[in-house]
Design brief:
Length: about 300
């Protein structure tokens, strides 16, 4: 139900923030790093389980895939619906317990504020009465959670204070996360429309939101290339080459998705998600490589 590969996808976001503060893996505070990672994953589990419960009607009418829709476990395996709700509550309690440990390790009001905001948004994403996912605010919620709060939490927990170190990273992740989220919601547009979910794709229409999402993703790629070049001069050309390959691979699926082909939309979602993970992981590697290059005697 939790789909573990989604949990794995969050780790690079947390890592890039932590490395943005430490700038060198040898400078990472190991115990706080793993405590922080456990907090992030527990909040993500909370969001997943609440979404499984509150979106169960949509899951009954829409086909889920590797990346789109819910897991559909409540429907496929005829599970007791409240099971997902109780798992969500357990994940919240785990997140709060770990936050207590976090406070003992590093009591910083801003850090704790980030955690509590993430817990609140994870709940409000799919839970009534807020239910942001059905009001056209779900995409923004994902951007704030994944593109801002997760890397910012990793940055703050490692003692980061220099905003010039984290702002370029956030400037890359925010548009990339928005573009990726749009790509993964498009295949669900018909099911969302039938069940009354007013996502941005439903409100604006598939073609318009696709164009906006692609522009945002390209902006994130451009910002990422600039950020990589600032961290490690010369590496920006590698980033540019990767971005060019992503664009070439995505041309056909994007064209198909714009014409209403749902299979093309699903392929595009896979390509964009893979590209997203590649860019974020690459950014982490560049931060490490940049730190090591600075430490070399020459």
């Amino acid at each position: 139900m939790a789909r573990p590969y989604f949990l794995l996808g969050t780790i690079p976001l947390y890592l890039v923030g932590a490395l943005g503060a430490a700038r060198d893996p040898r400078a990472l505070a190991v115990v706080p790093f793993f405590i922080g990672l456990a907090v992030v994953l527990s909040i993500q589990l909370q969001t997943h389980f609440y979404n499984e419960y509150h979106d169960r009607e949509t899951d009954r009418t829409a086909a889920s895939s590797l990346l789109t829709g819910g897991s559909g476990a409540l429907v496929k395996y005829d599970l007791y619906d409240e099971f997902a709700l109780w798992l969500g509550r357990a994940a919240v309690l785990l997140a709060l317990g770990l936050t207590g440990v976090l406070a003992m390790v590093a009591f910083r009001p801003l850090l704790l504020g980030v955690v509590f905001l993430a817990i609140a948004l994870g709940w409000a994403y799919s839970s009534p009465p807020a239910r942001f996912v059905a009001r056209g605010l779900g995409e923004l919620t994902v951007v704030v959670l994944a593109g801002v709060l997760v890397p910012l939490f990793g940055f703050l927990f490692q003692g980061g204070t220099a905003t010039q170190d984290i702002l370029p990273i956030l400037g890359t992740l925010v548009p990339l996360t928005f573009g990726m989220n749009i790509a993964t919601t498009l295949p669900d547009i018909d099911g969302d429309r039938r069940t009354g979910k007013r996502t941005l794709a439903v409100r604006l229409g598939a073609r318009r939101i696709l164009d906006i999402g692609i522009l945002a993703f390209l902006l994130g790629c451009a910002t990422g290339v600039w950020t990589i070049e600032q961290i490690l001069p010369g590496a920006g050309m590698i980033g540019l080459a990767v971005a060019a390959v992503i664009c070439l691979v995505g041309v056909s699926p994007v064209a198909g998705a714009r014409s209403g082909d749902q299979q093309a939309a699903s392929r595009m979602a896979v390509i964009v998600t893979a590209a997203y993970g590649t860019i974020v992981s690459g950014l982490s590697l560049v931060i490490v490589a940049g730190a090591w290059a600075i430490s070399l005697p020459w």
